[in-house]
Structure formats: structure tokens, C-alpha cells
Write a structure and sequence with these properties.
The protein contains twelve helices and nine strands.
């Protein structure tokens, strides 16, 4: 399967083939704040708030590096006062935001006007009672659902479904609900704390990401985790990064699971040099965070990179 066919717009065979320490910086996820008005039981919380002056510096650095895709995250990024200024400042082709969907619709409408063209919204339930449990707050489900419907009519909007013992029985209903809302795709994933092999779900869908995950499950391929056969290195770190505070991390999962940063973020050039060193020395299979949590799409990217470059070496 070509990486383009999975549905994650940041993944492509061409990206893998051109990937090097000098290739275009492809993607960055910027953690602006740890503040959140939800208390999701599976969420890894933290207290950091990135100063707007530093966040501006980072986005300026990305602009100079011709960053292709940026994602603003938290916590809940709509609680960050400088969010709109950063969105307007960024020159990335794809400007994404991860949100719990609970802000007033006017907030999201303004973000779209300012340049956000990719929304990822949490939808962990298909009824209000389960939604209250999954979000840790009461009475927000209808507002979130209404926002998903409205945003989906205006731009690319996916929903992320984190599965736990509390909502796994509703997976069919959640998918049906999201489909009815007109979303662009549906991403199901077990929580890191639970991280079980998900049950096989027999749903005929045209959503590429959902179809990819459901097909993997049919073939007993887990969403999370590395096997002995997978690439032990992570070439994704070469053109992709996550930043929290003034540190850059291998990826957003590594950050959220409490992994150590690769280094201090001063500028893109030095950060990429640090990331190349990390890539060369780090054995992901020996790192429990990577071994237990690496996602299927990341595995496929990294395996493709390994196979492609091995083939090139053998045919030269």
C-alpha cells in the first residue's frame, strides 16, 4: 500500500524517498498550553504554557525553513490567547489544530478565517452520558457535536476516537455518529493506558484512515506497538518534530508519554542536527515508549524508508 492511500495527508512515498537531514521540514506539532477545560481520564496532563514571544520565534523559524504542515495543540489550544496571531503568522501550507470541540463556534469560525484548514476534534462517545465520563465534565456533548457538523461543512475535519473500556462497546455507534456528521475521516486508537488489540469491526467505509485501521484489525495488526520485524530506527524524526516548552521531542506520542526531549529548540538547523544524531543512536525497539506506543502509520512510514533505502543500496 502506498502511504498516500492511508489518508494521512502528511504521509507519502515521495516524502520517504526524498527524506534526509537536508530535505524540506515536513511537519511540526506545537504544544501551546497544558490548560484544558476537559478532564479526559486517558489524557497526559502537564502545566506548561509556552510564552507567546517564544511561540512567535518558533513559528518564524518554521517559516524560514519552509515548513509544510503545522499543528497547534495542547491541552486545549483555543484557551491560548495568542493562538490566532500564530495561525496568521504561519506560512505553512497546512495549518491544523487539535481541539476538544467545546469552544463557541465563533472561535472556530475565526480560526478558519485566519487560516486553519484542518481540524481534529475528539469524539469519544455517541451519547451524552458516556461523553460526560470520557471528557470528565458534564453537559458538553451537544455543543461539541454541533461544532463538528458546522466545521465539517467548511473545511477538512476529522474526529479522533480514543478507545477505553468505558466506550469500546460503543465503537460502532461512534463511527455511525461521526459519519452522519459529515466528517472527513475517523481515527480510532486505543488509549496508551489500555492499549489493547481492538476488536474486529465489520463496517464498510470509504474513509481512508478508518478503512486502513479496520483492515489492519482484521489482519490482527495492532494500532500501537513495534514488532521484531519493524524498523528499529525512526526516520520520521528527521523532518518531523513536536515542541513543548523550549524543547523538541521525537514525536507527539513520545512527548505525551513522558519521554525525554532530544534537546533545546534554538533554531531549525541545530534542532535537525540533534535529531539526526538521535536517529542514528536510538534503538526504538529497546525504548519502551516507542516499542509499546508507535502507531501503525508511523511503523509503515519507517519500514518503507528502511526497505526503500536498502533496495537502493543493493541495486547500486
Amino acid at each position: 500500500m502506498n502511504l498516500e492511500d492511508i489518508g494521512f495527508y502528511t504521509l507519502s512515498n515521495a516524502r520517504v524517498k526524498n527524506l534526509s537531514k537536508n530535505s524540506r521540514l515536513w511537519r511540526c506539532e506545537l504544544i501551546l498550553t497544558g490548560k484544558c477545560n476537559f478532564k479526559c481520564p486517558y489524557c497526559r496532563t502537564f502545566d506548561d504554557e509556552m510564552p507567546l514571544s517564544f511561540a512567535t520565534q518558533v513559528v518564524d523559524e518554521f517559516n524560514r525553513a519552509n515548513l509544510k504542515n503545522i499543528r497547534f495543540s495542547g491541552g486545549e489550544p483555543t484557551l491560548y490567547k495568542g493562538l490566532n496571531d500564530l495561525v496568521k503568522l504561519s506560512t505553512a501550507e497546512r495549518k491544523a489544530i487539535s481541539t476538544n470541540g467545546s469552544a463557541d463556534f465563533e472561535v472556530y469560525e475565526q480560526l478558519i478565517e485566519d487560516g486553519i484548514n484542518d481540524f481534529s476534534i475528539s469524539l469519544d462517545a455517541c451519547c451524552s452520558s458516556t461523553a460526560d465520563v470520557m471528557s470528565g465534565v458534564n453537559g458538553m456533548y451537544e455543543k461539541v457535536c454541533s461544532n463538528i457538523v458546522k466545521i465539517s461543512k467548511r473545511t477538512y475535519c476529522t474526529v479522533g476516537v480514543v478507545l477505553t473500556p468505558e466506550n469500546i462497546g460503543e465503537i460502532d455507534g461512534i463511527i455511525a455518529t461521526a459519519t452522519r456528521f459529515g466528517v472527513s475521516d475517523i481515527r480510532i486508537i486505543p488509549s496508551a493506558q489500555w492499549s489493547k488489540t481492538l476488536p474486529k469491526v465489520d463496517i464498510n467505509t470509504s474513509y481512508p484512515i478508518l478503512k486502513y485501521r479496520l483492515n489492519n484489525l482484521k489482519h490482527n495488526i495492532p494500532v500501537r506497538g513495534l514488532s521484531e520485524a519493524d524498523n528499529k530506527r525512526c526516520p520520521l524524526v528527521l523532518d518531523d518534530m513536536a515542541i513543548k516548552g523550549n524543547f523538541h521531542y521525537p514525536c507527539i506520542i513520545y512527548l505525551r508519554e513522558g519521554g525525554e526531549p532530544i534537546g533545546v529548540f534554538d533554531n531549525v538547523k541545530w534542532a535537525r542536527q540533534d535529531r539526526l544524531k538521535w536517529y542514528r543512536r536510538h534503538n526504538c525497539f529497546k525504548d519502551p515508549i516507542c516499542k509499546n506506543n508507535c502507531l501503525d502509520v508511523c511503523r509503515q512510514h519507517n519500514n518503507y524508508f528502511n526497505n526503500y533505502h536498502l533496495t537502493r543500496c543493493c541495486t547500486k
